[in-house]
Amino acid sequence: MDRRQYILALDQGTTSSRAIVFDRSGKAVSTVQKEFKQHYPQPGWVEHDPEEIWESQCMAAARAIEAAGLGAQDIAAIGITNQRETVVVWDKATGKPIHPAIVWQDRRTADLCGRLKEEGCSKVIRKKTGLLLDPYFSGTKIHWILENIGGIRERAERGEVLFGTIDSWLIWKLTGGKAHVTDVSNASRTLLFNIHSLEWDRELLGLLYIPEAMLPIVKSSSEIFGYTEEGPLPHGIPIAGVAGDQQAALFGQACFKKGMAKNTYGTGCFLLMNTGALPIQSQHKLLTTIAWRIGNRTEYALEGSVFIGGAVIQWLRDELQIISSAQECNELATTVKDSNGLFLVPAFTGLGAPHWDPQARGTAIGITRGTNRAHLCRAALESIGFQVADLVRAQMEDSGLPLAQLRVDGGASRSDPLLQFQADLLQSEVVRPKCVETTALGAAYLAGLAVGYWGDMGEIYNNWAEADHFQPNRSAEEIQPLLDSWNDAVSRSLGWKH
Ligand SMILES: Nc1ncnc2c1ncn2[C@@H]1O[C@H](COP(=O)(O)OP(=O)(O)O)[C@@H](O)[C@H]1O
Ligand SMILES: O=P(O)(O)OC[C@H](O)CO
Fold first, then answer.
1. Residue 133 belongs to a domain with what CATH number?
2. Residue of 11, 176, 194, 408 with fewest CB within 10 Å of its CB?
3. How many CA atoms lie within 13 A of 248 on its CB side?
4. Mind listing the pLDDT tens digit for each residue in 377-411?
5. Per the domain annotation, does 247 fall within a domain?
6. Ligand 2 proximity of 245 Cβ (cutoff 6 Å)
7. At 1, is the pLDDT very low, low, confident or very high (cuts 50, 70, 90)?
8. Residue 294 lies in a domain
9. Residue 3: pLDDT above 90?
10. What is the DSSP annotation of 136-170?
11. What is the pLDDT of residue 2?
Protein backbone atom coordinates (compact mmCIF):
# COMPACT_ATOMS: atom_id res chain seq x y z
CA MET A 1 0.00 0.00 0.00
CA ASP A 2 1.11 3.55 -0.79
CA ARG A 3 2.14 5.30 2.42
CA ARG A 4 1.21 8.71 1.07
CA GLN A 5 -1.88 9.85 2.89
CA TYR A 6 -4.03 11.89 0.54
CA ILE A 7 -5.59 12.04 -2.92
CA LEU A 8 -6.03 15.28 -4.84
CA ALA A 9 -9.16 15.58 -6.98
CA LEU A 10 -9.47 18.22 -9.71
CA ASP A 11 -13.10 18.97 -10.54
CA GLN A 12 -13.19 21.19 -13.60
CA GLY A 13 -16.84 22.32 -13.90
CA THR A 14 -18.75 24.59 -16.26
CA THR A 15 -18.54 27.67 -14.09
CA SER A 16 -15.63 26.97 -11.74
CA SER A 17 -12.50 24.89 -11.20
CA ARG A 18 -12.34 23.13 -7.86
CA ALA A 19 -9.63 21.15 -6.13
CA ILE A 20 -10.29 18.94 -3.12
CA VAL A 21 -7.85 16.94 -1.00
CA PHE A 22 -9.40 13.73 0.36
CA ASP A 23 -8.22 11.41 3.07
CA ARG A 24 -8.64 7.64 3.22
CA SER A 25 -12.09 7.84 4.84
CA GLY A 26 -13.31 9.90 1.86
CA LYS A 27 -13.43 13.08 3.93
CA ALA A 28 -12.59 16.40 2.22
CA VAL A 29 -9.59 17.89 4.04
CA SER A 30 -9.43 21.09 2.01
CA THR A 31 -11.46 22.59 -0.83
CA VAL A 32 -10.56 25.51 -3.08
CA GLN A 33 -12.79 26.86 -5.84
CA LYS A 34 -12.00 29.41 -8.53
CA GLU A 35 -14.66 30.75 -10.86
CA PHE A 36 -13.81 31.72 -14.43
CA LYS A 37 -15.39 33.76 -17.17
CA GLN A 38 -18.20 32.61 -19.46
CA HIS A 39 -18.16 34.04 -22.99
CA TYR A 40 -21.32 34.41 -25.10
CA PRO A 41 -20.02 35.74 -28.45
CA GLN A 42 -23.37 35.19 -30.23
CA PRO A 43 -26.85 34.07 -29.17
CA GLY A 44 -26.71 30.34 -28.44
CA TRP A 45 -22.90 30.26 -28.36
CA VAL A 46 -20.97 29.53 -25.15
CA GLU A 47 -17.17 29.58 -24.96
CA HIS A 48 -14.42 29.27 -22.34
CA ASP A 49 -10.79 30.30 -22.50
CA PRO A 50 -8.80 27.02 -22.17
CA GLU A 51 -5.83 28.91 -20.68
CA GLU A 52 -8.08 30.42 -18.02
CA ILE A 53 -9.45 26.97 -17.26
CA TRP A 54 -5.89 25.68 -16.88
CA GLU A 55 -4.77 28.60 -14.71
CA SER A 56 -7.84 28.51 -12.46
CA GLN A 57 -7.46 24.76 -12.03
CA CYS A 58 -3.75 25.06 -11.17
CA MET A 59 -4.39 27.84 -8.68
CA ALA A 60 -7.15 25.80 -7.00
CA ALA A 61 -4.91 22.70 -6.86
CA ALA A 62 -1.86 24.46 -5.44
CA ARG A 63 -3.96 26.27 -2.84
CA ALA A 64 -5.84 23.12 -1.80
CA ILE A 65 -2.55 21.34 -1.11
CA GLU A 66 -1.29 24.37 0.79
CA ALA A 67 -4.54 24.78 2.77
CA ALA A 68 -4.32 21.15 3.88
CA GLY A 69 -0.76 21.85 5.08
CA LEU A 70 0.65 19.23 2.72
CA GLY A 71 3.50 18.85 0.23
CA ALA A 72 3.88 16.81 -2.95
CA GLN A 73 5.22 13.88 -0.91
CA ASP A 74 1.78 13.54 0.73
CA ILE A 75 -0.25 13.15 -2.47
CA ALA A 76 -0.58 9.54 -3.59
CA ALA A 77 -2.36 10.38 -6.85
CA ILE A 78 -4.46 12.91 -8.75
CA GLY A 79 -7.98 12.22 -10.02
CA ILE A 80 -9.54 14.42 -12.70
CA THR A 81 -13.22 14.96 -13.38
CA ASN A 82 -14.63 17.52 -15.75
CA GLN A 83 -17.49 19.23 -17.52
CA ARG A 84 -18.11 16.82 -20.35
CA GLU A 85 -18.41 17.27 -24.15
CA THR A 86 -16.65 20.68 -24.16
CA VAL A 87 -14.11 20.81 -26.99
CA VAL A 88 -10.54 22.12 -26.90
CA VAL A 89 -8.33 22.07 -30.01
CA TRP A 90 -4.70 23.02 -29.59
CA ASP A 91 -1.40 23.19 -31.46
CA LYS A 92 0.78 20.20 -30.58
CA ALA A 93 4.06 22.10 -31.02
CA THR A 94 3.25 25.23 -29.04
CA GLY A 95 0.57 23.85 -26.71
CA LYS A 96 -1.57 26.90 -27.52
CA PRO A 97 -5.34 26.56 -28.12
CA ILE A 98 -6.25 27.45 -31.68
CA HIS A 99 -9.81 28.47 -30.75
CA PRO A 100 -11.74 29.12 -27.52
CA ALA A 101 -13.21 25.98 -25.96
CA ILE A 102 -16.71 25.34 -27.36
CA VAL A 103 -18.82 24.50 -24.33
CA TRP A 104 -21.35 21.66 -24.09
CA GLN A 105 -24.20 24.21 -23.86
CA ASP A 106 -23.24 25.79 -27.20
CA ARG A 107 -25.93 25.37 -29.91
CA ARG A 108 -23.98 26.62 -32.97
CA THR A 109 -24.09 23.23 -34.69
CA ALA A 110 -27.89 22.83 -34.55
CA ASP A 111 -28.19 23.18 -38.36
CA LEU A 112 -25.48 20.61 -38.98
CA CYS A 113 -27.25 18.20 -36.63
CA GLY A 114 -30.50 18.87 -38.51
CA ARG A 115 -28.82 18.09 -41.85
CA LEU A 116 -27.28 14.88 -40.54
CA LYS A 117 -30.69 13.82 -39.24
CA GLU A 118 -32.22 14.45 -42.65
CA GLU A 119 -29.47 12.36 -44.22
CA GLY A 120 -30.57 9.50 -41.94
CA CYS A 121 -27.50 9.39 -39.67
CA SER A 122 -29.39 9.23 -36.38
CA LYS A 123 -29.77 5.47 -36.29
CA VAL A 124 -26.11 4.56 -36.72
CA ILE A 125 -25.08 7.21 -34.21
CA ARG A 126 -27.58 5.97 -31.64
CA LYS A 127 -26.51 2.36 -32.15
CA LYS A 128 -22.79 2.94 -31.93
CA THR A 129 -22.53 5.79 -29.42
CA GLY A 130 -25.74 5.52 -27.36
CA LEU A 131 -26.23 9.27 -27.97
CA LEU A 132 -28.60 11.43 -30.00
CA LEU A 133 -27.78 13.79 -32.83
CA ASP A 134 -27.67 17.00 -30.81
CA PRO A 135 -25.23 19.96 -30.67
CA TYR A 136 -24.68 19.05 -26.97
CA PHE A 137 -22.01 16.45 -27.87
CA SER A 138 -18.43 17.10 -28.99
CA GLY A 139 -18.33 15.71 -32.54
CA THR A 140 -20.14 18.48 -34.42
CA LYS A 141 -18.25 21.12 -32.44
CA ILE A 142 -14.90 19.67 -33.59
CA HIS A 143 -16.26 19.64 -37.13
CA TRP A 144 -17.20 23.32 -36.79
CA ILE A 145 -13.64 24.26 -35.77
CA LEU A 146 -12.12 22.26 -38.62
CA GLU A 147 -14.47 23.96 -41.09
CA ASN A 148 -14.12 27.50 -39.78
CA ILE A 149 -10.44 27.98 -38.97
CA GLY A 150 -8.35 28.24 -42.12
CA GLY A 151 -5.78 25.50 -42.73
CA ILE A 152 -6.62 23.58 -39.56
CA ARG A 153 -8.02 20.47 -41.19
CA GLU A 154 -4.77 19.76 -43.06
CA ARG A 155 -2.75 20.29 -39.90
CA ALA A 156 -5.13 18.03 -37.94
CA GLU A 157 -4.68 15.33 -40.59
CA ARG A 158 -0.92 15.54 -40.04
CA GLY A 159 -1.45 15.24 -36.24
CA GLU A 160 -0.10 18.77 -35.67
CA VAL A 161 -3.34 19.91 -34.08
CA LEU A 162 -4.94 17.94 -31.26
CA PHE A 163 -8.46 17.60 -29.90
CA GLY A 164 -9.37 16.86 -26.32
CA THR A 165 -12.21 17.18 -23.87
CA ILE A 166 -11.26 19.14 -20.75
CA ASP A 167 -9.68 16.10 -19.05
CA SER A 168 -7.31 15.62 -22.03
CA TRP A 169 -6.41 19.30 -22.07
CA LEU A 170 -5.57 19.31 -18.35
CA ILE A 171 -3.55 16.10 -18.57
CA TRP A 172 -1.64 17.43 -21.57
CA LYS A 173 -0.74 20.55 -19.60
CA LEU A 174 0.01 18.72 -16.33
CA THR A 175 2.33 16.26 -18.05
CA GLY A 176 4.14 18.98 -20.01
CA GLY A 177 2.73 17.73 -23.32
CA LYS A 178 3.79 14.11 -22.77
CA ALA A 179 0.32 12.52 -22.63
CA HIS A 180 -2.54 13.02 -25.10
CA VAL A 181 -5.12 10.77 -23.46
CA THR A 182 -8.71 10.57 -22.24
CA ASP A 183 -10.86 7.97 -20.51
CA VAL A 184 -13.75 5.91 -21.88
CA SER A 185 -16.43 7.89 -20.05
CA ASN A 186 -15.34 11.17 -21.63
CA ALA A 187 -14.79 9.53 -25.02
CA SER A 188 -18.33 8.18 -24.86
CA ARG A 189 -19.68 11.75 -25.02
CA THR A 190 -18.03 12.75 -28.29
CA LEU A 191 -20.32 11.10 -30.91
CA LEU A 192 -17.15 9.51 -32.30
CA PHE A 193 -16.58 6.62 -29.89
CA ASN A 194 -18.08 3.18 -30.30
CA ILE A 195 -19.25 2.28 -26.79
CA HIS A 196 -19.37 -1.43 -27.64
CA SER A 197 -15.96 -1.96 -29.26
CA LEU A 198 -14.39 0.83 -27.12
CA GLU A 199 -12.67 2.40 -30.14
CA TRP A 200 -12.86 5.59 -32.13
CA ASP A 201 -15.24 4.65 -34.92
CA ARG A 202 -14.01 5.17 -38.50
CA GLU A 203 -17.54 5.37 -39.93
CA LEU A 204 -18.51 8.13 -37.49
CA LEU A 205 -15.23 9.96 -38.04
CA GLY A 206 -16.04 9.79 -41.76
CA LEU A 207 -19.56 11.18 -41.23
CA LEU A 208 -18.21 14.18 -39.37
CA TYR A 209 -15.05 14.42 -41.47
CA ILE A 210 -12.72 14.33 -38.47
CA PRO A 211 -9.14 12.99 -38.80
CA GLU A 212 -8.24 10.26 -36.33
CA ALA A 213 -4.73 11.70 -35.94
CA MET A 214 -6.07 14.52 -33.77
CA LEU A 215 -7.81 12.24 -31.24
CA PRO A 216 -6.41 11.21 -27.85
CA ILE A 217 -5.57 7.67 -26.80
CA VAL A 218 -8.48 6.23 -24.83
CA LYS A 219 -7.70 4.59 -21.49
CA SER A 220 -9.81 3.03 -18.76
CA SER A 221 -11.02 5.29 -15.94
CA SER A 222 -8.60 4.03 -13.32
CA GLU A 223 -4.98 3.61 -14.39
CA ILE A 224 -1.88 5.77 -14.78
CA PHE A 225 -2.52 8.47 -17.40
CA GLY A 226 0.83 10.20 -16.87
CA TYR A 227 2.92 12.01 -14.25
CA THR A 228 2.99 15.70 -13.41
CA GLU A 229 5.93 17.70 -14.70
CA GLU A 230 7.43 20.40 -12.50
CA GLY A 231 5.23 23.50 -12.88
CA PRO A 232 2.26 24.67 -10.87
CA LEU A 233 2.29 21.22 -9.25
CA PRO A 234 5.45 19.37 -8.21
CA HIS A 235 7.11 16.76 -10.42
CA GLY A 236 6.13 13.11 -10.45
CA ILE A 237 2.60 12.80 -9.03
CA PRO A 238 0.65 10.12 -10.92
CA ILE A 239 -2.60 11.12 -12.61
CA ALA A 240 -4.44 7.90 -12.02
CA GLY A 241 -8.20 8.41 -12.33
CA VAL A 242 -10.34 10.24 -14.91
CA ALA A 243 -14.10 10.40 -15.51
CA GLY A 244 -16.69 12.84 -16.79
CA ASP A 245 -18.31 14.67 -13.90
CA GLN A 246 -21.67 12.90 -13.92
CA GLN A 247 -20.09 9.47 -14.15
CA ALA A 248 -17.66 10.43 -11.38
CA ALA A 249 -20.62 11.45 -9.19
CA LEU A 250 -22.21 8.03 -9.82
CA PHE A 251 -18.94 6.48 -8.66
CA GLY A 252 -18.61 8.86 -5.68
CA GLN A 253 -22.14 7.88 -4.64
CA ALA A 254 -20.93 4.26 -4.69
CA CYS A 255 -23.70 3.28 -7.12
CA PHE A 256 -21.80 0.13 -8.05
CA LYS A 257 -24.71 -2.27 -8.37
CA LYS A 258 -27.11 -2.62 -11.28
CA GLY A 259 -30.19 -0.46 -10.71
CA MET A 260 -28.52 1.98 -8.30
CA ALA A 261 -29.01 5.60 -9.33
CA LYS A 262 -27.98 9.10 -8.39
CA ASN A 263 -29.36 12.47 -9.33
CA THR A 264 -27.27 15.62 -9.26
CA TYR A 265 -29.39 18.73 -8.70
CA GLY A 266 -27.12 21.49 -10.02
CA THR A 267 -27.91 24.18 -12.58
CA GLY A 268 -29.46 21.32 -14.53
CA CYS A 269 -30.13 17.81 -13.28
CA PHE A 270 -28.35 14.65 -14.33
CA LEU A 271 -29.83 11.29 -13.43
CA LEU A 272 -27.61 8.26 -14.00
CA MET A 273 -28.51 4.65 -13.34
CA ASN A 274 -25.90 1.92 -13.29
CA THR A 275 -26.96 -0.82 -15.72
CA GLY A 276 -23.91 -3.03 -15.12
CA ALA A 277 -22.05 -4.60 -18.04
CA LEU A 278 -25.11 -4.12 -20.24
CA PRO A 279 -25.51 -1.07 -22.50
CA ILE A 280 -29.31 -0.65 -22.55
CA GLN A 281 -30.89 1.07 -25.58
CA SER A 282 -33.51 3.48 -24.30
CA GLN A 283 -37.03 3.62 -25.70
CA HIS A 284 -37.47 7.04 -24.08
CA LYS A 285 -34.59 9.03 -25.58
CA LEU A 286 -32.34 8.55 -22.57
CA LEU A 287 -28.64 8.27 -23.33
CA THR A 288 -26.65 5.07 -23.07
CA THR A 289 -23.24 6.00 -21.80
CA ILE A 290 -20.11 4.43 -20.35
CA ALA A 291 -20.09 4.82 -16.58
CA TRP A 292 -16.47 3.73 -16.15
CA ARG A 293 -14.00 1.02 -17.06
CA ILE A 294 -11.85 -0.50 -14.32
CA GLY A 295 -9.42 -3.27 -15.25
CA ASN A 296 -11.15 -5.12 -18.05
CA ARG A 297 -14.70 -4.52 -16.85
CA THR A 298 -16.76 -1.78 -18.51
CA GLU A 299 -19.94 -0.62 -16.80
CA TYR A 300 -22.68 1.33 -18.50
CA ALA A 301 -25.31 3.81 -17.36
CA LEU A 302 -28.61 5.16 -18.59
CA GLU A 303 -28.61 8.93 -18.37
CA GLY A 304 -31.31 11.55 -18.44
CA SER A 305 -30.61 15.29 -18.39
CA VAL A 306 -32.81 18.19 -17.39
CA PHE A 307 -31.52 21.57 -18.62
CA ILE A 308 -33.14 23.78 -15.98
CA GLY A 309 -32.98 22.36 -12.44
CA GLY A 310 -31.60 24.59 -9.67
CA ALA A 311 -31.48 27.34 -12.32
CA VAL A 312 -35.24 27.84 -11.92
CA ILE A 313 -34.52 29.03 -8.36
CA GLN A 314 -31.86 31.41 -9.71
CA TRP A 315 -34.48 32.71 -12.14
CA LEU A 316 -36.86 33.51 -9.26
CA ARG A 317 -33.99 35.29 -7.54
CA ASP A 318 -32.29 37.14 -10.40
CA GLU A 319 -34.98 37.76 -13.03
CA LEU A 320 -38.28 37.86 -11.11
CA GLN A 321 -36.49 39.04 -7.96
CA ILE A 322 -39.17 37.57 -5.70
CA ILE A 323 -36.60 35.96 -3.39
CA SER A 324 -33.16 37.09 -2.32
CA SER A 325 -31.61 33.63 -1.86
CA ALA A 326 -32.25 29.99 -2.69
CA GLN A 327 -32.83 29.33 0.99
CA GLU A 328 -35.63 31.91 1.03
CA CYS A 329 -37.34 29.94 -1.72
CA ASN A 330 -37.41 26.89 0.55
CA GLU A 331 -38.68 28.90 3.49
CA LEU A 332 -41.50 30.47 1.47
CA ALA A 333 -42.42 27.16 -0.17
CA THR A 334 -42.98 25.56 3.22
CA THR A 335 -45.39 28.30 4.33
CA VAL A 336 -48.04 26.85 1.97
CA LYS A 337 -49.38 23.30 1.90
CA ASP A 338 -49.23 23.05 -1.91
CA SER A 339 -48.80 25.17 -5.04
CA ASN A 340 -52.53 25.97 -5.09
CA GLY A 341 -52.92 24.37 -8.51
CA LEU A 342 -50.01 26.24 -10.08
CA PHE A 343 -47.69 24.28 -12.41
CA LEU A 344 -44.46 25.78 -13.72
CA VAL A 345 -42.66 24.10 -16.63
CA PRO A 346 -39.18 25.67 -16.76
CA ALA A 347 -38.55 24.89 -20.43
CA PHE A 348 -36.50 28.10 -20.71
CA THR A 349 -34.03 26.56 -23.17
CA GLY A 350 -36.27 23.83 -24.51
CA LEU A 351 -36.72 20.49 -22.77
CA GLY A 352 -34.11 17.75 -22.44
CA ALA A 353 -34.86 14.07 -21.81
CA PRO A 354 -37.27 12.44 -22.34
CA HIS A 355 -38.71 15.13 -24.69
CA TRP A 356 -35.62 16.64 -26.40
CA ASP A 357 -37.73 19.51 -27.67
CA PRO A 358 -35.64 22.61 -28.44
CA GLN A 359 -38.85 24.50 -29.30
CA ALA A 360 -40.51 24.02 -25.88
CA ARG A 361 -40.70 27.18 -23.76
CA GLY A 362 -41.48 28.00 -20.13
CA THR A 363 -45.09 27.82 -19.05
CA ALA A 364 -46.92 28.70 -15.83
CA ILE A 365 -50.47 27.43 -15.76
CA GLY A 366 -53.20 27.30 -13.15
CA ILE A 367 -52.69 30.89 -11.99
CA THR A 368 -55.64 32.36 -10.06
CA ARG A 369 -56.13 35.56 -8.08
CA GLY A 370 -55.10 33.62 -5.00
CA THR A 371 -51.69 32.67 -6.44
CA ASN A 372 -48.90 34.27 -4.44
CA ARG A 373 -45.10 34.15 -4.46
CA ALA A 374 -45.02 31.28 -1.95
CA HIS A 375 -47.05 29.21 -4.43
CA LEU A 376 -44.66 30.22 -7.19
CA CYS A 377 -41.66 29.16 -5.07
CA ARG A 378 -43.34 25.88 -4.32
CA ALA A 379 -44.24 25.31 -7.99
CA ALA A 380 -40.61 26.05 -8.95
CA LEU A 381 -39.22 23.49 -6.51
CA GLU A 382 -41.86 21.00 -7.57
CA SER A 383 -40.97 21.53 -11.23
CA ILE A 384 -37.48 20.20 -10.48
CA GLY A 385 -39.00 17.16 -8.79
CA PHE A 386 -41.45 16.50 -11.62
CA GLN A 387 -38.73 16.64 -14.28
CA VAL A 388 -36.54 14.19 -12.37
CA ALA A 389 -39.54 11.91 -11.77
CA ASP A 390 -40.12 11.82 -15.54
CA LEU A 391 -36.54 10.65 -16.00
CA VAL A 392 -36.78 8.02 -13.26
CA ARG A 393 -39.95 6.59 -14.79
CA ALA A 394 -38.28 6.41 -18.21
CA GLN A 395 -35.21 4.77 -16.69
CA MET A 396 -37.23 2.15 -14.86
CA GLU A 397 -39.21 1.30 -17.98
CA ASP A 398 -36.06 1.06 -20.11
CA SER A 399 -34.07 -1.01 -17.63
CA GLY A 400 -36.84 -3.06 -16.07
CA LEU A 401 -35.12 -2.28 -12.77
CA PRO A 402 -37.12 -0.77 -9.91
CA LEU A 403 -35.59 2.16 -8.05
CA ALA A 404 -35.23 1.28 -4.39
CA GLN A 405 -33.44 4.45 -3.43
CA LEU A 406 -32.31 7.65 -5.13
CA ARG A 407 -28.97 9.06 -3.96
CA VAL A 408 -28.76 12.81 -4.43
CA ASP A 409 -26.15 15.58 -4.55
CA GLY A 410 -25.56 19.02 -6.09
CA GLY A 411 -26.48 22.52 -4.85
CA ALA A 412 -30.27 22.17 -4.94
CA SER A 413 -30.12 18.87 -3.03
CA ARG A 414 -29.78 21.12 0.02
CA SER A 415 -33.53 21.79 -0.31
CA ASP A 416 -35.47 19.60 2.13
CA PRO A 417 -38.89 20.44 0.63
CA LEU A 418 -37.61 19.46 -2.82
CA LEU A 419 -36.27 16.12 -1.59
CA GLN A 420 -39.47 15.36 0.35
CA PHE A 421 -41.54 16.11 -2.75
CA GLN A 422 -39.18 13.94 -4.81
CA ALA A 423 -39.68 10.99 -2.45
CA ASP A 424 -43.46 11.46 -2.66
CA LEU A 425 -43.41 11.58 -6.46
CA LEU A 426 -41.12 8.57 -6.81
CA GLN A 427 -42.72 6.59 -4.01
CA SER A 428 -39.19 5.61 -3.02
CA GLU A 429 -36.57 6.72 -0.57
CA VAL A 430 -34.35 9.73 -1.39
CA VAL A 431 -31.01 9.87 0.41
CA ARG A 432 -28.51 12.69 0.87
CA PRO A 433 -25.01 11.44 1.74
CA LYS A 434 -22.61 12.93 4.30
CA CYS A 435 -20.14 13.88 1.59
CA VAL A 436 -21.97 15.93 -1.05
CA GLU A 437 -18.73 16.52 -3.03
CA THR A 438 -19.49 13.28 -4.81
CA THR A 439 -18.08 14.32 -8.20
CA ALA A 440 -14.62 15.07 -6.87
CA LEU A 441 -14.81 12.10 -4.53
CA GLY A 442 -15.57 9.79 -7.46
CA ALA A 443 -12.46 11.00 -9.30
CA ALA A 444 -10.40 10.59 -6.13
CA TYR A 445 -11.67 7.03 -5.70
CA LEU A 446 -10.83 6.13 -9.31
CA ALA A 447 -7.30 7.48 -8.86
CA GLY A 448 -6.84 5.92 -5.43
CA LEU A 449 -7.90 2.49 -6.68
CA ALA A 450 -5.29 2.61 -9.45
CA VAL A 451 -2.40 3.23 -7.06
CA GLY A 452 -3.57 0.88 -4.30
CA TYR A 453 -4.53 3.71 -1.93
CA TRP A 454 -7.92 2.02 -1.59
CA GLY A 455 -7.88 -1.76 -1.80
CA ASP A 456 -11.06 -2.36 -3.78
CA MET A 457 -14.53 -1.07 -4.55
CA GLY A 458 -15.89 -2.85 -1.48
CA GLU A 459 -13.83 -0.56 0.74
CA ILE A 460 -15.23 2.46 -1.11
CA TYR A 461 -18.78 1.13 -0.91
CA ASN A 462 -18.42 0.99 2.87
CA ASN A 463 -17.13 4.58 3.01
CA TRP A 464 -20.45 5.91 1.71
CA ALA A 465 -22.59 7.22 4.54
CA GLU A 466 -26.05 8.69 4.68
CA ALA A 467 -26.69 12.11 6.24
CA ASP A 468 -30.47 12.47 5.71
CA HIS A 469 -33.19 10.47 4.10
CA PHE A 470 -36.70 11.28 2.92
CA GLN A 471 -39.46 8.67 2.84
CA PRO A 472 -42.65 9.10 0.82
CA ASN A 473 -45.36 10.46 3.08
CA ARG A 474 -48.10 10.69 0.48
CA SER A 475 -49.71 7.74 -1.26
CA ALA A 476 -49.44 6.94 -4.98
CA GLU A 477 -53.19 7.73 -5.27
CA GLU A 478 -52.64 11.22 -3.87
CA ILE A 479 -49.70 11.83 -6.20
CA GLN A 480 -51.26 10.60 -9.46
CA PRO A 481 -53.50 13.66 -10.08
CA LEU A 482 -50.42 15.90 -9.65
CA LEU A 483 -48.50 13.85 -12.22
CA ASP A 484 -51.45 14.03 -14.61
CA SER A 485 -51.62 17.82 -14.30
CA TRP A 486 -47.85 18.11 -14.73
CA ASN A 487 -47.99 16.06 -17.94
CA ASP A 488 -50.79 18.27 -19.16
CA ALA A 489 -48.76 21.40 -18.39
CA VAL A 490 -45.70 19.94 -20.20
CA SER A 491 -47.77 19.15 -23.27
CA ARG A 492 -48.74 22.83 -23.45
CA SER A 493 -45.11 23.97 -23.37
CA LEU A 494 -43.93 21.66 -26.19
CA GLY A 495 -43.25 23.09 -29.64
CA TRP A 496 -44.09 26.65 -28.53
CA LYS A 497 -41.32 28.45 -30.45
CA HIS A 498 -42.31 27.52 -33.99
N1 LIG B 1 -30.65 25.76 -0.54
C2 LIG B 1 -30.95 25.61 -1.82
N3 LIG B 1 -32.19 25.26 -2.22
C4 LIG B 1 -32.51 25.11 -3.52
N5 LIG B 1 -31.63 25.29 -4.53
C6 LIG B 1 -30.39 25.64 -4.21
C7 LIG B 1 -29.97 25.81 -2.86
N8 LIG B 1 -28.66 26.17 -2.88
C9 LIG B 1 -28.29 26.20 -4.18
N10 LIG B 1 -29.32 25.89 -4.98
C11 LIG B 1 -29.32 25.80 -6.44
O12 LIG B 1 -28.25 24.94 -6.81
C13 LIG B 1 -27.68 25.34 -8.06
C14 LIG B 1 -26.16 25.29 -7.97
O15 LIG B 1 -25.75 23.99 -7.68
P16 LIG B 1 -24.28 23.46 -8.08
O17 LIG B 1 -24.24 22.01 -7.73
O18 LIG B 1 -23.26 24.37 -7.47
O19 LIG B 1 -24.41 23.68 -9.65
P20 LIG B 1 -23.39 23.56 -10.89
O21 LIG B 1 -22.37 22.49 -10.54
O22 LIG B 1 -24.28 23.16 -12.04
O23 LIG B 1 -22.78 24.94 -11.08
C24 LIG B 1 -28.18 26.74 -8.33
O25 LIG B 1 -28.95 26.71 -9.50
C26 LIG B 1 -29.01 27.13 -7.11
O27 LIG B 1 -30.21 27.79 -7.46
O1 LIG C 1 -20.10 21.27 -14.99
P2 LIG C 1 -21.46 20.78 -14.65
O3 LIG C 1 -21.57 20.24 -13.26
O4 LIG C 1 -22.53 21.77 -14.98
O5 LIG C 1 -21.72 19.46 -15.59
C6 LIG C 1 -21.84 19.58 -16.95
C7 LIG C 1 -22.04 18.24 -17.62
O8 LIG C 1 -20.92 17.43 -17.54
C9 LIG C 1 -22.44 18.44 -19.04
O10 LIG C 1 -22.68 17.21 -19.67
1. 3.30.420.40
2. 176
3. 34
4. 999 999 999 999 999 999 888 888 888 899 999 99
5. no
6. yes
7. very low
8. yes
9. no
10. TSHHHHHHHHHHHSTTHHHHHHTT-EEEE-HHHHH
11. 47
